[in-house]
Amino acid sequence: MKVTVKYFASIREALGPGEVVELPAGSTIGALRDRLIAASSPHAEALARGRAVRAALDQALCDENAVVPENAEVAFFPPVTGG
To answer: Which of 13, 42, 61, 75 is most buried as measured by Cβ atoms within 10 A of its Cβ?
Structure first.
């Protein structure tokens, strides 16, 4: 199944605006992140497990256990603080 992945803030600076990824049905956000980490060195650095990275599934914040449906939009971004 195809999933649109979008990147924001520092992750976007490292990886560009996004990409389309093929995933097996039933994949989770965590599995998608692992697949992206394995894709290249820039992906591994930007999405590393030691880094704080938030995810949104179809524009709703989610955790890494969320199952990704076909044709979903997944966004990855660093935590944001404001004042």
So the answer is: 75
Q: What is the pLDDT of residues 2-44, one digit of tens each?
A: 999 999 999 999 999 999 999 999 999 999 999 999 999 999 9
What CATH number has the domain spanning 2-77?
3.10.20.30
What are the domain boundaries of the chain? 2-77
pTM for this prediction:
0.93
Question: What is the rounded CA–CA span in Å between residue 30 and residue 6?
Answer: 15
Give the per-residue SS3 of 52-77: CCEEEECCEEECCCCECCCCCEEEEE
Burial of 68 (0-12, 13-18, 19+ CB in 10 A): buried
| Rounded-to-integer distance, Cα 53 and Cα 12, Å | 12
